[in-house]
Write a structure and sequence with these properties.
Belongs to the EXO70 family. By secondary structure, the protein is an all-alpha fold. Helix content is 65%, strand content 0%. The protein has three domains: 83 residues, no CATH class; 196 residues, no CATH class; 223 residues, Up-down Bundle (Monooxygenase), CATH 1.20.1280.
Length: 582
């Protein structure tokens, strides 16, 4: 028939002349009742596929039967023919309305997961540089900053168990996602649309087809995200994208397993339209974040890039032809923009590490590990989990070329910045500078050694050079902080007379240095032992040699060599109040 679908142009009473016109008038009247009050109309079927208006369905069938009989072939029946064409259009439109009403997909088994995901805690931070408040809060509760990568470790504590289970493909085999009664209605609708010759109208309606299974998860992005941080939104996006990709595969399999019928010829186009519509929603969300360039969001952006990369193949499998090509091009375009944002973020992270004003001035803990060092290594460890992705993004488009180059530059910039900051804060610190740098370089080495991913990035030669630097700083610290104390024992060089006075000066200097250095912080027990040993090897042999040259002082000496060793073993326990700030 090819009749245009729309509300029939009824309203003018026409006296029926033939039996066919009488039948048409009755069918028109039934359709007219629906046309005049669509808001109050319950439809032919309810959402659960139960009949609610068999009379309306009978009117649709009567119109289609009349059209098949072609009762108005003569020119003088043109008016009746136009009325019939209009009625056919109304019948097809009724079928489209029913299609948009019927519930084909069953999301009842997913409600728990949807609810849990919408309420999922977002308290844990994966910022590469957590704020001082977050750092203190984590320490105060005995917790740690979440170092999950946000895309490869989906079953982390921040993802509810019910949601994590849906990321397992096998779980979907046990979920009944389809309503067989709803599919039966689709067959009924398709049969009548084909008879009306209005299949294109149904095809167009597929773009708006409801799908509770997918839409229940998409609703989290549409509604909940307005109340969430950027980090929470991206995290949910990555999870929802994975779930929807797996759900679409299961939906296709279950729809094709249903009893055959008239809708079989529409299944492919129906699923394609549903897939395209939901994929476009996901891509629009992803595209909305491509303008973010804050390095604080780097880990989340990598998670989004990886989630889209991982999900794209399965999503594209649900498409074909022009749809598949268009979605593929759009996906690649978004990935390209995400990659560009990641490169900007990487440069921003390095610039932050190399900057002069990274944190408010805080007590240095008398040589302890600076917050900048801790956060830099947390950043490195987080990035190492995304090595494959970052190598792909950086290759040929960044001067560093790979994550290894980025990490090497980042740590080198950290070391330069720490030296510069300490020199400005305490130009005459002497041994304090070497102790501070030994602490921080040792901390970096320890974190690298504890993380195979980072260690493989930097290599053995890099680690050997840093160990050599630590040894140099240890030796320089001992010479700078304890060399002047030991020099007091050299009576020849000092030209002083009485050995008892020399010993008294040494004792006083030793006690001052010990009291000061005992409170300095060296968190690493291995480095602490190395430093104590270096100081002991410098002080104790010189003290013993002095006493041997002055045998008369042996009994009156305040300390024995063993006393010095024991006293030096208490160095670097922390709780300093020296007030140096960097």
């Amino acid at each position: 028939m090819g009749a245009a679908v729309g509300k029939p142009a009824f309203g003018v009473a026409v006296a029926p002349k033939t039996q066919a016109e009488e039948r048409l008038a009755l069918a028109e009247h039934a359709l007219l009742q629906w046309t005049r009050s669509p808001g109050a109309d319950s439809g032919i079927w309810d959402a659960g596929a139960s009949y609610t208006n068999r009379g309306l369905l009978a009117a649709v069938d009567e119109v289609l039967l009349l059209a098949a009989e072609n009762p108005f072939p003569l020119p003088e029946a043109a008016s009746a023919r136009r009325r019939l064409d209009s009625a056919v259009g109304a019948a097809a439109s009724r079928m489209v309305e029913e299609f948009l009403r019927v519930r084909v997909w069953n999301a009842s088994l997913l409600r728990g997961a949807v609810h849990r995901l919408s309420l999922a805690s977002t308290n844990q931070s994966r910022l590469i540089f957590p704020s001082a408040r977050e750092r203190n809060s984590s320490a105060g509760t005995g917790g740690v900053v979440d170092a999950s990568d946000g895309s490869r470790s989906r079953a982390s504590s921040s993802v509810p168990h019910e949601v994590a289970a849906l990321l397992d493909t096998e779980v979907w085999d046990d979920l009944d996602l389809i309503c067989p009664a709803g599919v039966s209605v689709l067959h009924e609708i398709a049969l009548r649309v084909v008879r009306a010759g209005c299949t294109e109208v149904l095809f167009r309606a597929f773009a708006n087809a409801p799908c509770d299974v997918l839409d229940s998860f998409l609703s989290i992005l549409r509604v909940e995200c307005s109340q969430q941080t950027t980090e929470a939104v991206i995290k949910r996006w990555t999870t929802v994208t994975e779930i929807i990709g797996k759900a679409m595969v299961a939906m296709r399999r279950q729809l094709y397993a249903q009893n055959p019928g008239a809708f079989d010829g529409f299944r492919d186009e129906y699923l394609l339209a549903i897939a395209e519509n939901r994929i476009l929603i996901l891509l629009d969300f992803a595209n909305g974040f491509t303008s973010i360039t804050s390095h604080e969001k780097l880990v989340y952006m990598l998670g989004m890039y990886e989630a889209l990369t991982d999900a794209a193949p399965s999503l594209l499998l649900l498409l074909s032809g022009a749809r598949k090509e268009a979605i593929s091009e759009r996906t690649q375009g978004i990935l390209t923009k995400l990659a560009g944002a990641v490169r900007i973020m990487v440069s921003g992270a390095i610039a932050k590490i190399q900057g002069d004003s990274l944190f408010p001035h805080t007590p240095s803990a008398a040589g302890g590990v600076h917050p900048l060092t801790r956060d830099a290594m947390t950043c490195v460890e987080l990035l190492a989990r995304h090595r494959t992705t970052l190598d792909l993004i950086l290759a040929g488009a960044d001067e560093r070329g790979s994550l290894a180059g980025v990490v090497s530059d980042l740590i080198a910039g950290l070391e330069r910045n720490l030296q510069r900051r300490f020199a400005v804060a305490c130009a005459d610190a002497g041994g304090s500078r070497h102790l501070f740098l030994a602490n921080n370089i040792s901390f970096v080495l320890s974190r690298v050694a504890d993380n195979d991913g980072v260690a493989s990035l930097l290599g053995d030669a890099w680690a050997a050079r840093r160990r050599s630097r630590v040894e140099q700083h240890v030796a320089s610290y001992a010479a700078s902080s304890w060399g002047p104390v030991v020099a007091l024992l050299d009576t020849t060089a000092c030209g002083r007379g009485k050995s008892a006075k020399v010993l008294a000066e040494f004792n006083a200097a030793f006690n001052r240095s010990r009291d000061s250095e005992m409170c300095r912080e060296v968190p690493d027990p291995v480095l602490r032992a190395v430093l104590r040993n270096a100081v002991s090897e410098m002080v104790v042999p010189a003290y013993c040699a002095f006493l041997q040259k002055q045998p008369k002082l042996g009994k009156s000496a305040r300390y024995t060599a063993d006393d010095l060793v024991e006293l030096l073993s208490e160095l670097f326990e922390g709780e300093s109040t020296d007030g140096i700030k960097i």
